[in-house]
Amino acid sequence: MKTIRRFLCLFVFFFFALGRIYAQSSVQRTPNVSDKALITKSTPTINEEPFKNQNANATIAALHKLADDYYAWRNENYPVRSSDAGLHTWDDRLTDYSPAKTAERAQHVHSLLEKVRAIKTDNWPKDERIDWVLLRAQLEEVDFGNRVLKFERTNPQVYASECTNAIFSLLKKEYDTPRKRALAATARLRQMPALLRQGLSNLQNPVKLYAQLAIQSARSIDPLLNKSLIALDVDLAPDEHDELIKARDVALSALHQYADELEKRLPKMVDFAPMGEANYNYYLKHILLLPLDGAQVEMIGRAELARYRALEALLPDPKLADPDPARSASIPPDQASFLKAYESREQEMVSFLKEHNLVTLPDYLGAFQIRQLPEAFKPTSPGGFMNPPGVYDKDPTGFYFIPTYNPQSKNFYIRAAIEDPRPILGHEGIPGHFLQLSIANHLGDEIRRQHEDNVFVEGWALYGEEMLMRTGLYSNNSAAQGQILGLSRYRSARIGVDVNLHTGRWTFDQAVKYFMEAGGLDHEAAEGEAAGAASSPTQKISYIIGKWQIMNLLGRYKDRQGDNFRLGRFHDDLIKNGSLPVSVIEWILLDDPTSIEKALR
């Protein structure tokens, strides 16, 4: 995911949201005079025009114009993010992290947020008020990163990730000729030494944990630049080839020097810098639009952890919850065979979904492929990650990147994929991230198309795992069923880690220990999970909290539908709205704004 997403780029808080492509949607804008008015407490501190003293229709139009202008501004200012989302206008650029430009961007977003906060929406149609809420949350997320997290100053991963994703986003899809992509890569490689020097200058308050992860990534990028990138060197003229090789070698040297310099500075760095409880709760409510605070989120995590640990114990053989390749009928001999066997099980799952009318698969759905995880992403994504079609992608193909195959690997995801890949396939592919995000790409309402609520994205994928089990895809007491319980158990453990790390109650070592003892993970997986939790605040709560919200909505939806209830219709109604917070989807499907009002109150 990812899925922000979706998952998905990887860990830089306000950069990881993936975009979506233009098309039509079934989203309707119809007034509903019975809606309760949302409460806004913010007062404007800047000029409110063009929103002041206008009728509702004019103000609504101005809101959507502001949103469109913001997305265009964002796409140009974050060119690597744009490439990753399938928009290749600025493939020859890196983000400008000079202090002046960083401050300018922060001020621009804050000014837009103040304008949006100031709008009075009491007399707006329901769907337009929803768009206002969503745009406000999108701007709140970026503003929060600028005000509170300040990753340009604290997180060395920002700069290592920019370099990695700058090249990875040009390689993963054949959106243009190899030559043009190679020329863009050369241009970006040339800019990397200056970017990394700027990063070292910016990092006034670096965090040791983030630095250690950045060091690992910077020292793992060699295969990406030495092997994967050179695959584009097929039609370059001799001088173009020479420039690519020269730029690559200089960039690699700069990345290694960046890692070396960070390593020298490690003794003076703070171990970790939690955001604190007040900021954590602010993020939950104003950005994720959750009607819950951190204490309530943690309580749900503890309850779900207890439930899934007990369900593991109730299996006739509790060891089924821990994947074991030795139980598999066949073990792939090599990487190619492993990826092919993994991918081949997807059609089996698609057939099951169709036969049981569990979800509608649109005609525009592209191919879903399994690929090897690049080394540079392993420090914070030990289990791999989903890379869905981007918001601007013309190519509807999606990928799931899984760690390098090793039959003797202790990695949970490798072991699970050998024994039975279907639970992870259901999460990452169909009906999980790939299906849901592909549908979200086709929304006609641009504000909703651009919204990427990770709680819903991961919640839907995790919900799908258990839904497939309970509707009969996996037999009782099977390895797949055990895997479902094990996956839910450690996702429940993620909540305690995320809340306690970022509110400052736990150290990183305590988080790793909790993943091993409560989540049942091996040490390698536990360290990777804790690193991911530390790098992306609130991301790890998304799975269980999103699933819990969807289950709650399912029960209410079923009661309202009565004899007309059909599970497949619920699924279609749920995911046709895009990657929106469940509190907003409740308002859409049940005409009940209670949860969103509670979040914003």
Please outline the helices and strands:
Layout: H1 56-77, H2 79-84, H3 99-118, H4 126-149, H5 151-154, H6 157-171, H7 178-202, H8 208-219, H9 222-228, H10 238-265, H11 277-286, H12 294-313, H13 335-344, H14 346-355, E1 368-372, E2 385-387, E3 398-402, H15 412-419, H16 422-428, H17 433-440, H18 446-450, H19 454-470, H20 479-502, H21 508-517, H22 523-535, H23 542-561, H24 567-575, H25 582-590, H26 594-600
Helix pairs in contact: 1-3, 3-4, 6-7, 6-8, 7-10, 8-10, 12-20, 16-19, 19-20, 19-23, 20-21, 20-22, 21-22, 23-25
Comma- or semicolon-separated keywords:
58% helix; 3 strands; 601 residues; mainly alpha; three-stranded mixed sheet
Summary, kept brief:
The chain is an all-alpha fold and 601 residues long.
Average the pLDDT over all residues and give the rounded result: 89
Spans of at least 5 consecutive residues whose pLDDT stays below 50 are 2-48
Q: Please state the structural category.
A: mainly alpha
Strand content: under 5%
How many beta-strand segments? 3
Apparent shape: globular
**Count of individual helical segments:** 26
User: What does the radius of gyration come to?
Assistant: 23 Å
DSSP helix fraction: 55-70%
Strand order of the largest sheet: 1-3-2
Output the helix-strand order: HHHHHHHHHHHHHHEEEHHHHHHHHHHHH
How would you characterize the largest beta sheet?
Answer: 3 strands, mixed
End-to-end gap: 30 Å
